[in-house]
Amino acid sequence: MLHYAHSKEGSPPEEWHLLEDHLQDVAKRASDFSIPFGGQDWAHLAGLWHDLGKYSNEFQKMILEANGFECHLEAKPGRPIHSEAGGHWAIQNFHENFARVFCWLIMGHHTGLADYSSADSGAKALEPKMRKPERSSAIWNKVPATIKDQPEPALPKRLQEGADPSFFIRMLFSCLVDADFLDTEAFMDAGRKNLRNGEWSKLDDLLVFFDQHMDNMCRGASPLPVNKIRAEVLAQCRRAAEEKPTTFALTVPTGGGKTLASLAFALRHAKRWNKSRIIYVIPFTSIIEQTAEVFRNIPGFEKAVLEHHCNVSLDDESKETRRSRLASENWDAPIVVTTSVQFFESLHACKTSRCRKLHNIANSVVIFDEAQCLPPDFLRPCIFAIRELQRHYGVTPVLCTATQPVLTKTESFDFKFKEGFDSVTEIISHPTSLFDRLKRVRVAVLNELRPVSYEAIAEAIRSENKSVLCIVNKKDECRTLAQRLPEEQTIHLSTQMCAQHRIETFKAIRKRLNTDIEPLFVISTSLVEAGVDLDFPVVYRALAGLDSIAQAAGRCNREGKLPALGKTVIFVPENQPNYVQTAASLARSYLREDRIEHIFLPTTFKSYFGERFFLLGEKVLDKKDILGLLGNNLEFRFRTAAQKFQLINDDGQLSLIVPVGEAPKLVDALLDWNARSLFRQLQRYTISIPKKIMWQLLDEGHACELTEYPGTYFLTNKGLYDDRFGFIPPDELDAYDPESNII
């Protein structure tokens, strides 16, 4: 009797996907995916056994009858569970611990990695499923010997060398679920298969294009000192790329050309050491879009860059095509530019869709841009994951920042970062000298760092008689301060503005800086700091952590075009928010007159971060105990860890679509023809607001919930979205036009 894995509607069984073919093909794909980390035997066996349950009478009867064919097989009533049998077969044939690993992989290949046992997980936990082998016992004589008769695999070499078992299981899981998906897709949709298999650019070819581009740039560069230093940074990155893979640091002052220099390192290192791809991990979407655009503007790179984050629009063919959307499922592209949230949450995910891409991180060069932005509450599990990738999965990490944190196993300040790297190799030979030569800013303090009123801050900004960027810590004080400056000269920036609004505002700022004669005042939250390409002669920064101050100063005299040093002024607003007090208090000690001259040197940041981590303490650096959940002697709690590992804590926040640009038309389309694909386009027109404010908007008729999409909210009163400030809650708006309701 023939057994089938998948059917095609309207096709006879002889054209269906044979189960044995599917198992053998998935085993081969999964094994190939796991080669970079030596998991071939385990991945092959997981693929071979993942669908053994489909040999059951129940499954075969279901698939035949669902397609209108008679089936006389005896079968128990109810929907068959095909994903458990392979795990039960492992239990009967292998050592208990080995069998448990295969149960995680096979029993979760549709539902995701489960907790081993947990009161919260209940029936979804792994252990209860493992105790019911009788569900599968009726099918063993139906499984071909070539499939079921397999020797117990040896303990993987990586685990013998000390690799973390839970991480290894997750990487094997990635190989299995991606292999299963791709083999099923190849049978069900040949068009998608062919599109996915189209040729991406080779990294070796991209290196040739890149070198030509950089040579042209260097020849055409102006003779400014900063450009000479950028050329030196580029040369050092090219030389360092030949070094043996390890954990690298690229410590270069803001404006020193880190983006292109790091790509130079990555391309050369990938060629020298046969790496598969380059992944850029960036903390903010605004920097991602900027970085991806820089790469795509290199001749030959137009179709080589996969930009994977929530704001990529489906209708922008320059950024996303159908093929790139397929590649975003498993990161099968030569250059991937993504967010820290996407990268680290995927590494701690349990769902199949999030885990598919993980095996393609192996054997890659991963650039962690603005590495100081790794979230303190999850710093230990994040660094542990990077270290694990470097030690056991062929990854070359590069920590790229002007404000390098202490991420080695340091015992400074009596704090031992036990998950830290054994060592970090600096790419730049003399970073301190580089910072001295690239010094373009002097730092001053306002009112001896005593609290200052908004009126006084505004007056100080006006008195500069130059364009000023002022960065504050809270959204409400950003608007308050902007309102105290001349409207025609002032631009406001905050996350009260949707992404599309901010993109357009950035364009307006750059245009006015290049063309306006009178000073421009930009009042912003910290969203402009890390990596945003703006250049002001004067920057004001509300007191915050030293890394935030340095990033703000990086927007001052960025190109070194001023005849003298730029000026960065630190001030304390009258209502400094509590959430920056610890970092701000520590930074205050570095702003003393005897220390301020050396505030941005690498040695200063080494001292600052050592103190910062010591003050936070080991528990705070893994606030949700992620390492504890995944380090419990093969009783891992994968699902719980995934639920707790949320880099952006949006508890108490809801997404609100605002009536900007194309948003009203897209919402109409959603309501008219159920166009679910439009949700990604709507990400550009969405902000996050507290639940309390959302309920107020709904109660007072300012917003509505789209009935066809529960949990999707649209701001119907356009009077609450200001062209200058973005969303303004009703209680904070002086007056609005009640006729401005747009639905």
Task: Describe, in plain words, how this protein is organized in 3D.
The chain has 743 residues and is of the alpha/beta class. 42% of the residues lie in helices and 12% in strands. The chain contains 30 helices and 22 strands. It has a seven-stranded parallel beta sheet, with helices on both faces. Strands 10, 11, 12, 13, 14, 15 and 16 form a seven-stranded parallel beta sheet that branches. The chain has a four-stranded mixed beta sheet with strand order 18-17-20-19, covered by helices on one side. Helix 1 packs across helix 9, helix 4 packs antiparallel against helix 5 and helix 20 crosses helix 21. The chain is globular. 46% of the residues are buried. The C terminus is likely disordered.
Multimeric status of the protein: single chain
Percent helix, as a range, is: 40-55%
Name the poorly predicted regions.
311-320, 735-743
Provide the residue-averaged pLDDT: 88
